[in-house]
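Q: For a teaching handout, I want to show students what a protein-ligand complex looks like in token form. Below are the inputs, and the small molecule is cobalt (II) ion. Please produce the holo structure.
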Amino acid sequence: MLGRVNHIAIAVPDLEAATAVYRDTLGARVSQAQALPEHGVTVVFVELDNTKVELLEPLGDNSPIAAFLAKTPSGGMHHICYEVADILAARDQLKASGARVLGDGEPKIGAHGKPVLFLHPKDFSGTLVELEQI
Ligand code: CO
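A: Here is the structure, written as tokens, with cobalt (II) ion included.
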């Protein structure tokens, strides 16, 4: 079911500071910050040869990462995103095996314009999992 790791998302309290660490200390290629109000985050993409790291800072009052940062104020790994070829087939297979799909179970259009679903962290070793159809 799983393809490549599409991205690893890290929630950060200070996007500028986190970006500087990746760019200046680690020497990585980083994007400009992009505000995504419909997703409640501002994001910087760290471009690596084999995947991306997304640095996420809360944006607006109902940011989906606000509660996470309240619990982990210095930031932390928020989710890992795996690519799948058929998101509906993946969802149905996961549900049949007892995994919990978050929300209403219908794919939404994610930050990259592709259908995504999120899976309950308690079913995946404490890690929020995003599936993205590629
Ligand atoms: Co993501």
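A: Two things your students might notice: Residues 7, 9, 79, 81, 130 surround cobalt (II) ion (CB under 6 Å). Residues 2-133 form a domain with the 2,3-Dihydroxybiphenyl 1,2-Dioxygenase; domain 1 fold (CATH 3.10.180.10).
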